[in-house]
Write a structure and sequence with these properties.
It comes from Elizabethkingia bruuniana. The chain has six helices and five strands. The chain is mainly alpha-helical.
């Protein structure tokens, strides 16, 4: 028995040290980030919103983000775990597609960006592609009495390019875009 306990205690000690070093490395690394490892908060009209957590926008006068499998609750982050051949999942996606096309008249024959009808792995993705935002321009311009060109320019201004213009896709933060949209509408 002594032959098993001593190695187990040593291994536990070594692992505690290694994990502790790893955690210190991750913590120190997070402090180098622009946000210091903290949440990115946007204050708008006296309310605080988390920029890096998806928000739900239902009104036709706003851009809509990715659907959420966890109803946009950060404490329940996760995917639906239903595969692309699951009948229930396919029904959900088809329902989202039908709703999206109904909400965006005039776009029935336009290719639908996949992020507008599928949830992300976390269910909290705050960003969509520029194509996902442009798909919604016609609806928003009509509801807000703006020209489509003004709304397209707003999408372009709020598009973040890939890191170093090489890594990852271009993206648009839906919350920031909607805040900018409200500001544009009030200046009209």
């Amino acid at each position: 028995m002594k032959n098993y306990i001593l190695p187990a205690v040593k291994l536990t000690f070594v692992m505690a040290v290694l994990v502790g070093i790893y955690l210190m490395f991750v913590y120190a690394g997070s402090k180098v980030l622009p946000t210091g490892g903290n949440a990115e908060i946007i204050t708008y009209k006296g309310q605080k919103f988390y920029r890096n957590i998806g928000q739900e926008f239902k009104s036709p006068k706003y851009f809509h983000g990715r659907p959420s499998s966890v109803n946009y609750k950060a404490d329940g982050s996760g995917a639906s775990n239903k595969g692309p051949s699951n009948k229930e999942y396919l029904d959900i996606v088809q329902k989202r597609l039908n709703t999206l096309k109904m909400e965006n008249p005039g776009m029935e024959n336009t290719k639908v960006p996949v992020e507008l009808i599928t949830a992300s792995g976390s269910g909290l993705d705050p960003d969509i592609s520029p194509e996902g935002a442009l798909y919604q321009v016609k609806r928003i311009a009509k509801v807000r009495n703006l020209s489509e060109e003004e709304v397209k320019n707003l999408v372009t201004q709020n598009t973040t390019p890939p890191v170093l213009h090489l890594l990852g896709p271009a993206k648009v933060n839906v919350l920031e875009l909607n805040v900018a949209l409200d500001k544009l509408s009030t200046h009209q």
